[in-house]
Amino acid sequence: MAKKKQNKRAPKLKFSNKWAYSAAPESTDHIELKEKYDLFINGKFVKPNSKKYFTTINPATEKKIASVAEANESDVDKAVKAARKAYDNTWSKMPGKERGKYLYRIARMIQERAREFSVIESMDGGKPIRESRDVDVPLAAAHFFYYAGWADKLNYAFPGVHPRSMGVAGQIIPWNFPLLMAAWKIAPALAAGNTVVLKPAETTPLTALKLAELIQEAELPDGIVNIITGAGRTGAAITAHPQLNKIAFTGSTDVGKIIQNALAGTDKKYTLELGGKAANIIFEDASIDMAVEGIINGIFFNQGHVCCAGSRLLVQESVAEEVIHKLKERMETLVVGDPLDKNTDVGAINSKEQLKKIKSLVKIGINEGGNCYQSSCSVPAKGFWFKPTIFTDVAQSSTIVQEEIFGPVLAIQTFRTVEEAIEKANNTPYGLSGGVWTDKGSKIFNVTGKLKAGVMWANTFNKFDPTSPFGGYKESGVGREGGLHGLSAYVHV
Ligand code: NAI
Ligand code: MG
Asked: CB of 236 closer than 6 A to ligand 1?
């Protein structure tokens, strides 16, 4: 598929495999996994009324890891009733400082078990251990710590408006950051005094179920957190449940629209974190080496399974050749393969379906005349893999410039003026994030002020902090998570 067509004027690529390290796989001896997981309802693991189970596999090996219960409507109803009872009898009556203690305890326990959570996250979802270990799990703990601190200070967070909890929240999360998305959803909800029913994605349920075990050990009173598993039908049963007060969803824009329709005319509050097609904008005065590292981090990080991924590159014409050359050189040094190997930069694609989607969009990109370049690495025979890929010679109207691919595929365009860069960056149905690379502070403020995106990075990319709100414009969603904004999404004022 890779057409290695090189620009004549560009210096010849001189790739070497000087970065070939010996394998350094993380051990799996220390993890505890059951063969079969039931639903976590009212503080206990209970068999599903549906009597059905599905399989979660390791996408790097295609081997089965565990059977997981599939909740039907009556299971969802059971979980919602448990959450309601816990809300009425326990959690809404507990002083904030006591709620906070539980959240601190959960945060500390996640830290204590960080290694186990990281390994399971990488096994179940395919992301490199370096990321699950250094990003997902520490940030999940950080979110619990951060919101624990607000639990007894709601009147200071929202002064003079008498903040009250909402009740029971239904929360549906995707497969790209399974534990972290669970923390983003559960921590602010609990800090504000709500109880929850959370559903992880069907390809990555295991860290949420391990979190359920941890919550049990933390002795959080029964029913405050309920974790039920299943696919889209289970999710739909959650959004349709009449006794929920709030729905929080992260996932595709298509499902986000279905949920928004289902909630229209009800009094349920909702937040939706949906897709993105972020532009990384490189100006000629940027530190080019730093920017190239930022592009790599922005799109190949987590196999591009990131809603805020820098999946478009806008590079100023005068430096385009240099940037693309250096980018190709850097792509050659990326280690693609075993997610549990500590050297791995790019792990497995999360599922067969996602791989199919990436392949079909890349094919469209080639058919529409794009120039496709892939790193020359080899990938394992078993499992779902896609080589780091870039496209040049694409137009603003190209499918791969407009649509979220959710894979390690970067579309590159050039621009001449600041105005052109802004116009191209904003010309998308999405508006979740963006990046600007320049030496000039004034340019950063000028450009970031004009980009219609919820999260902007300057001279860096994909950096997260629990104190900072996250969320999108346009088709990227409704509402914010993280920081005080994320807390306000769980209170009535
Ligand atoms: P999805 O949106 O179908 O799945 C996200 C979650 O929603 C999962 O827990 C799923 O079980 C649940 N769900 C599915 N249908 C539902 C329904 N009708 N009602 C309620 N919940 C429902 O995402 P999927 O199919 O896994 O991925 C498809 C595409 O979505 C990806 O190729 C990617 O482009 C995008 N995506 C975006 C994410 C983001 O964070 N922005 C995350 C995951 C996927
Ligand atoms: Mg899996």
From this structure: yes
